[in-house]
Each structure stands twice: as structure tokens, then as C-alpha cells.
């Protein structure tokens, strides 16, 4: 089960640096590619606005 970034995302970039498989794409709201995500949760652990949850 992949993680998903909600519309609460502030595009701060913290999660991108933490993703070990480069599954996160930049944008107004960042997006996690579910086919690449390994469900490690590293992104959710560092999100300052708690905008990342398991899908």
C-alpha cells in the first residue's frame, strides 16, 4: 500500500529528500507514484504539516 500526499501539502520539499526510491514528484502539491513507493513511511515521518498518509 503506497502513501499519498493530501492537498494540505505546502510543497516544502522535505519529503523528496527522504524518499529512498525517488517516488515523489514536485508540483503545487507533491505526488507519490504508487508503483514506485515501497511503503517505507519516511516521507510521512518528516512532513512538517502531516500531509502524507497511507493510501
Global outline:
globular
Q: How much beta, percentage-wise?
A: 15-25%
Please write the CATH class name: Alpha Beta
CATH architecture: 2-Layer Sandwich
Order of helices and strands: EHEEHE
Give a quick account of the main beta sheet: strands, pairing sense, barrel closure.
2 strands, antiparallel
Layout of helices and strands:
Layout: E1 3-5, H1 14-18, E2 24-25, E3 31-32, H2 42-46, E4 52-54
Antiparallel strand pairs: 1-4, 2-3
In short:
The protein is 18% helix and 18% strand. The protein has 55 residues and is an alpha+beta fold.
What features would you describe in this structure?
It is a single chain. The chain has a single domain (3-54), classed as Alpha-Beta Plaits. A two-stranded antiparallel ribbon has the order 1-4. The longest helix has 5 residues, at 14-18. It has 55 residues and is an alpha+beta fold. The chain is 18% helix and 18% strand. Strand 2 and strand 3 (31-32) form a beta hairpin. The chain has two helices and four strands, in the order E-H-E-E-H-E. The protein has helices at 14-18, 42-46; strands at 3-5, 24-25, 31-32, 52-54. The model has no long low-confidence stretch (mean pLDDT 96).
Amino acid at each position: 500500500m503506497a502513501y499519498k500526499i493530501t492537498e494540505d501539502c505546502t510543497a516544502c520539499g522535505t519529503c523528496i529528500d527522504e524518499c529512498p526510491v525517488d517516488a515523489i514528484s514536485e508540483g503545487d502539491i507533491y505526488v507519490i507514484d504508487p508503483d514506485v513507493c515501497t511503503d517505507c513511511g519516511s516521507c510521512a515521518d518528516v512532513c512538517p504539516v502531516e500531509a502524507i498518509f497511507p493510501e
